[in-house]
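Quick sanity check, (rape) hypothetical protein:
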Amino acid sequence: MIFDAEVFIRVVAPRASVKSFRLQPLPAKIFNIALMGMASDVPIGVCREHTINCSTSWFLAVHAVVLFILMLGNTVLMTKAAMAITTELRSWDSSLDTTRSLMVQALLK
């Protein structure tokens, strides 16, 4: 199944929460979308932990939230630079998740 960004935008754009994002200043948009990306990264991170590294499902789990943030950013009319900052915030959270995972694995040994 090929994922179509236009369908995502048509489905998500009329929602009240997305309409309220459009009225916010840019720093608030960045913060809110970064939080949504981090929250959506939790279940995807669980999926990522249970897949073989560098497999197709692992690759999709690693990059799914980035696509979500980019499409949501287009929906709420963010600039490309702001979306890059938001994606970087999300990857920072993901690196913390990896660090926590490594610490837990070290403690369990």
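Posting the structure with no commentary besides this: The radius of gyration is 15 Å.
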